[in-house]
Amino acid sequence: MNRVLPLIVVALAILAFATLLLVAGPAAQIRSIDPPEGLAPYTAAELRGRNEYISLGCVYCHSQQPRSPEQAPDVLRGWGRPSTAADYVYDEPHLLGTMRTGPDLLNAGARLPSRAWQLTHLYQPRAIVPQSIMPAFPFLFEAKEQAAQGDVVVKVPARHRPEGKVIVARQEALDLVDYLLSLDRTYPAERTDLRDNGFMAQEEDS
Amino acid sequence: MNFTIGTLLAFSFAASLIAIAALIWAISTHQFRITESDARTVFGDEEGGKLDDPTSPHSDSHPSAVDPALSPEWRRLLIVMFVTATAWLVFGSIFGLIASLKLHLPDWLTGSAALTFGRMRTMHLNSVIYGFLSLGGVGAALWLVPTLFKTHLHKPRLAMLGAVIWNLAVFAGVIVIGAGWNDGLEWLEIPWQIDIFLAIGGACFAIPLLYTAAARRVNHIYVTGWYYLGGLVWFPVLFLLANLPGVHSGAQQATTNWWFAHNVLGLWLTPLGLGAAYYFIPKIIGKPIYSYRLSLLGFWALALFYSQVGMHHLIGGPVPTWVVSLSVVQSVMMVVPVVAVAINQHTLSLGNLWAWRESLPLRFVALGAILYTLASLQGSLEAVRAFNTVTHFTHYTVAHAHLGAYGFVALVLFGGIYYMLPRVTGRAWPMPWAISLHFWLVVAGFAVYFISLTIGGWLQGLAMLDATRDWLASMEVTLPYLAGRSLGGALMTLGHLVFAANLAVLFFGRTRRFEDDSDDVATPATATSTGA
Amino acid sequence: MTQKRKAERRIKSVAGTSNKNFDPHESYNPIPWQVIAIALALAAWGIITLATTREMAESEPEVTQGTGADERLSKAVDAEMSDGRQLFVTNCSTCHQNNGSGIEAAVPPLAGSRYVLAEPEVPASIVLFGIQGEIEVAGDTYRGRMPTFGNELNDEQIASILSYVRNSWGNQASAIEAGLVAEQRRRFAERTTPWAGGAALAETFGIPATSRPTASVATSEESH
Question: Which ranges carry the Cytochrome c domain (chain C) (predicted)?
């Protein structure tokens, strides 16, 4: 341990080995899969909404990866079947998330398909779920004296909106809802080998 | 693929085991040409055996003047590093506190997109990781590497350019995140266009340090140097691979994402923190670490096992079973280097409790080192599937991340800065009581923070696994603990403001210079100095 | 062996001393045997763990399909969530709320709703196919979309939810049998889309789309 160069070379070699295993390995397996038949690419509006989702940091509270029934009751909660790598072929960047301060959203569109519900909920979550701690996003909406032609008016209980005004969704809110409604992986799972099945092993052991 | 996954898995784990066995054999049979006397490298010719702490009135050594080896450029560089790191700490704490409050006061400050939870939290993370911890950690390296190598910092102007570029890049990154532009990946939110400048800034730090290492005047590289050199070559590779635009997507991107995110802790912040702790603990106490050979095991086992960790963040997720299992096992193997480091550092610091009473910097550093041990052991436990099923997706993980990044790295940096700045500036800390106040505020605050989130997260996880309870119950159960976290975070933020105030007075106030009262104690020529 | 003992003694004495002058440093400290023992134990655990998950890694297991019921799931439901209240909380309360109040201006209430209290075939068909379109409940008009539950829930589960809803929050109506739900499934086997609001329900079941002018037709308008 008295020379700089060997130390650096070995340190880099170890990292290269890890890269091969943890970056190149999964990439070789996952990147070659075909998109499932039931999964459509995102539309332009959905992609804009997805960017809104990223920009507002929704991923820090909402996961998009239901777990298997062997591990957790995600299916019972209506969050959908356990997802596989094939369900994410159009996702860039991925939005798997690691927190469930809010519920899983991989099938939000199938579970809550109402655009009106989603818009109201984004404007003021507590208008729908009184105990919710989700942020309100009033800046995605406009409070107007009167709705103009073509405006999407959001139903908001009077106590949650400025007096005498109507709440109208901005394009950002409409796009975000388009994205949320597109979240639907209820088609049959493909490539079930490409998910963490480690809990099935434990189930069989016990 | 013409090989089975099973053989790949067996091969990779076997390779790590063979490597670690070879390492233990090599250490045990003296294959490495290091001796225990190399552990004394931290001491100067006449140092050691006494408390060395510029903040303590009882210190046996007198840092009576600014280090004569410090060139003006080098000194200015270090001051810029530590001052900007502290500024990022203050900003990052405020962002974090706002984000924490928003989780239990959701209708507070909802008027602007920049203030929404998702952005505040992200600005917090990037400010403290790439601002405070990275700048502070590299700042410590820029002082420690030349000091240990008994030379001066080579190319200090290049490093200064790096400090400027890095700061501007982090600033730009945090601003654009607030404005809504980010890459969408946790720990990699800063857009890759700005990451290019972080990479350039990082290179401007690495090159002077490598030049300095090449021009060293001692034969032996002390363990601190191993960690710093390792971190300096690992981080750029990780950062570049993970940020390559257009290469990663879908579930595969998630594997790269978490491999990177965990290695930012394991192969960047941990080496920065451990390197500093390996210097400051023996240096302040005045005695070498317990077993220098053991530190070899600690370093190389960390490199071997930590680099294959990270996929446990995707347990139960849509990535292949084998890659998750491999990370789980390697996470648990991390116990080996952690125990090695723990034996080395804690036998020394806990065996010299008198020094904890005497030295506030040591208190910060040694406590940080102990929290490193706890965070790592907790991390190994959290990677085990049965345990992870409860804690995954909950605030328990957030508490754990802060135990590592704050309890360990930030505390070590606080102690290091308290030790280094008097030597760098030649000035004594103007408000010694503020150091103690800072210590107790952040320790009490962090205890409240960690205990609240750990309990709240665990209850959240149990509720989420209980099919007979509504999912909302798992959120509602956390509310009092989220409020507790805000209380703890507020105390920590207050501590950081005290720290920043002390720093400000050091530079701008009327502070005592060591030279002023050094005449009757020692002349500068005979004063002990780390760089002599 | 003597080295081992020495190392042990050393650790103990170092940990126990507070003597300023004690120096734990010595010329040769071997790797404590405890460290090697830990490494060996962990390695053994790792090999066992990897060996047990290896099979799973190479298999393509049956994964629960659809968003809802497979056999395993139905069993779990029978065991843990047999009663309609649990099923309601899981599937319906996000929108209709735990107390059936719905959400002002967004989701219709279930408490006192004439669609809930109508002939059993009406609520059963609504749950099976969902609603998309204008619908008037308790004097307010809603334009939402209710999901289709026919694929997610089986006949018994739907019957159980409806029996609960029809006898909660002041509602009083007959319980619903699984057989009746199955009957509606067969009756509308061709149907692939949600009911297009109150108008479609009026057309199919004869329940008036509005309660205001001639409410006398509805059987359960007392609550208004």
Answer: 79-169
Distance, in Å, from the CA atom of B505 to the CA atom of B507, rounded to the nearest integer, reads: 5
Angle at B274 between CA B271 and CA B278, to 5 degrees: 135
Judged by CB atoms closer than 8 Å, whether chains meet at C38 and B336 is answered as yes
Give the total number of structural domains in chain B.
1
At C74, is the pLDDT very low, low, confident or very high (cuts 50, 70, 90)?
very low
Q: Which residues are paired to B482 by β-bridges?
A: none
113-172 in chain A: CB under 8 A from chain C: 113-117, 120, 127-129, 155-157
What's the gap in Å between the CA of C186 and the closest CA on chain A?
Answer: 23
- Structural domains of chain C sorted by starting position, each given as residue range(s) with its CATH number in brackets: 71-210 (1.10.760.10)
Q: Residue B119 and residue A61: Cβ atoms within 8 Å?
A: no
What is the domain extent for residue B151?
Answer: 72-221
Cβ-based contacts of B328 with chain C (< 8 Å): 49
At B409, the amino acid letter reads V
Q: Quote the pLDDT of residue B280.
A: 96
Which residue in the set B117, B241, B251 is minimally distant from A85, CB to CB? Answer: B251
Instruction: Catalogue the E-assigned strands of B271-356.
Output: none
Chains A and C form CB pairs within 8 A to the count of: 111
Please judge whether A75 and C61 are an interchain contact, meaning their C-beta atoms are less than 8 angstroms apart.
Answer: no
Q: How do residues B4-31 score in pLDDT, each as one tens digit? A: 676 777 788 888 899 989 988 888 887 7
Instruction: Kindly state the helix (H) or strand (E) to which residue C217 belongs, with its residue range.
Output: none
pLDDT tens digit sequence for B216-241: 988 889 999 999 999 999 999 999 99
Within 13 Å of residue C55, how many CA atoms lie on the same side as its CB?
A: 10
What CATH number did the domain enclosing B209 receive?
1.20.120
> How much is the pLDDT for B512?
64
- The pLDDT score that the predictor gives to residue A3 is 83
| Owner of token pair 């090449």 | B214
pLDDT along chain A (206 residues), means of 10: 86 92 89 91 97 97 95 89 95 96 94 87 91 96 94 89 93 98 92 87 50
The strand pair at A166-169 and A153-154 is best described as antiparallel
Give yes or no for A12 touching C (CB within 8 A).
no
Look up residue B402 and give its amino acid. H
DSSP annotation of C174 reads: -
Neighbours, chain A (3 or more CB pairs < 8 A) = B, C
Cα–Cα dist B67/A184, whole Å: 65
Q: Which residues of chain C lie closer than 8 angstroms to B28, CB-CB?
A: 30-31
Residue tagged 């570029």 (tokens): B165
Considering only CB atoms, C29 lies closest to which of B49, B291, B339, namely B291
Q: Across residues B507-530, what is the average pLDDT?
A: 51
pLDDT band at residue B520 under the 50/70/90 scheme: very low
Mean pLDDT computed over C129-137 = 90
